[in-house]
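Explain my protein.
***
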Amino acid sequence: MSILILTACIIFLILQIAWFKINPFIAFIITSLLAALFLGLPIETISPVLQKGLGEMLGSITLIIVFGTCIGKLAVSSGAAKVIAKTVMNWTGRKYVRLGLMITGFIIGIPLFYSVGFVLLVPLIFSVAHQFKLSKVYLGIPMLASLSVAHGFLPPHPSPMALSSILKADIGLVLIYGIIIAIPTILIAGLWFSTRFKNIKTESDHEILNVEEITNEGKLPSFGLSLFSALFPVFGLTITSLLPLISDNAKLIAVCKIIGDPSIIMLLSLLLCTYTLGIKMNRSMSSVMDDYTQAIKDVALIVLIVGGAGCLKEVMIVSGVNETIVATLNQVNIHPFLLAWIMAAIIRICVGSATAAGLMTASVLLPLLQSNDLDPNLFVLSVGAGSLMCSHVNDPSFWMFKEYFNISLKDTFKSWTVMESLVSVLGIVFIFILNALIH
């Protein structure tokens, strides 16, 4: 019964947004309340559950989104994004522009958290789209597919790292296997699939990051300065991740943990960009702050929608629907890799969080791994692939993609949701192929 209630709630959520045109944030709150009631949560606990879900979701990504959007806005208004786009495109040329973006997304996506990579790379996608008069979705899918694969498959991202720890896998082998599987996956789900969206249009001229809005009163930054400023979080996270691995100094490790937090890195990056792309380029502080103010206003709706998704996710977790799904799947007699993939996929569809889906699945299936002669490294990747399945309205990334690219709900399903599903399905297919070759 709980699974039927969950299914009905998700359908109702989609109908509110797509049919009745209700604001997604309000739709999430209404659906969360109804789900809590029908799933039997005590009335007095419903409000605290929603508040916890909202707070935990926003607490983990709000600063990243806001700081990243401010950096993106400044990179655009200072001309830095245009400088980067022009230089990169001179290297790759129009013919191979999507391949260049895909490779860039994959390399940057390995050390960079998904949310950070998304908000940092979107301005580059927009600048290239404006320069070559191409669809933003057509250009964006290859790069974002690379980020998604890195997020679900590759350490040091939270889910693969946690899964490797739970399942006693070798992080180095997980990374190697993950890269082997990721390459054909993004070539198909990113590069090939994106050819379907050459003519997809945005709903209006409004964009969160308007590539034509260059307000720099002084000179344009150099390519080196632009790249260093925009990708400073990549360097910061990479250094703070590697230093603890090569040093036993307790103080150094503690400092790396503090500075290496994505929110702290993003704040330091914002301060750096304020100088390198603002003050150093002869812009006044008030002009830079005006950019930040506008960026925060533009991203407010995305932040609220993300919080609404957190409310629904928390209701599902507290009500125990996930455990019901897991218990049902445990009775199915199929290959453990496929079982892990299906279980992670269903939980992902229900709660929207790839990390949550992966951790729930790994915790339940740990005894299965211990009782079978399975490769724990491929088991980690099986769970990771399943956790990327079918991103839809309860996934914050779905709304980030829709709102940043300013496309319709229908086009978001056709592009983003199908791309994520392809990544997931291709991932498990290549895992079985690799398993056959290795063992």
Notes: The mean pLDDT is 84.
